[in-house]
Structures are given as C-alpha cells and as structure tokens.
Design a protein that fits this description.
The protein has four helices and no strands. By secondary structure, the protein is an all-alpha fold. Helix 1 crosses helix 4 and helix 3 runs antiparallel to helix 4.
Length: about 90
C-alpha cells in the first residue's frame, strides 16, 4: 500500500495516528497527568503524521505525501474549530 503513489493512499494512511492518539488519550486520561493537557493528543497526532510524511517522502511518492498533508490539515482545522466552538 505504501508503494502506491496516489492521493487516496495518503488519505487512507493519514487518519491512523490521529485515531490512535485520541484513543490512547481517552483510555489513559485518568492515569496520566500529561493527558490532562487538552491539546496534547492533537499535537502528538500531528507530529506523528509529520514524521510519517518525512519517511514516505524519501520514497519519491509525492502524491501520497500530499494526501497525508491534506488530511492532517483538515484534522488540525477541525480540532481548532471544535475547540473554539466548545469554548464559547
């Protein structure tokens, strides 16, 4: 799947780390002091996606990296909008 160079491949790969980060934050929210920071799961998800983009970009799969980047930006924008909406 990683050898295929398409936007769809990147869009399918990108939600893996945000979903894992949010599930881990939900499961560990009572047991760790670090997860009491509200933005930490989002930051971890974005950093992991950036690392994944860096690793995949070495294979000359530009479209896949662009697909990951688009989904990551949509994730960050949605998280920002939801956080702003919840603060009001």
């Amino acid at each position: 799947m990683l050898s295929k160079n398409s936007y769809l491949t990147g869009a399918l790969i990108a939600p893996i780390f945000p979903a894992a980060s949010l599930v881990a934050a939900y499961l560990l929210k009572d047991s760790m002091l670090l997860f009491n920071k509200p933005a930490l799961p989002y930051l971890v998800a974005v950093v992991l996606n950036l690392i994944m983009m860096r690793v995949i970009s070495k294979k000359d799969t530009v479209k896949t990296v662009k697909g990951i980047m688009i989904v990551t930006f949509i994730f960050v924008l949605a998280a920002f909008i939801l956080k702003q909406h919840l603060l009001r």
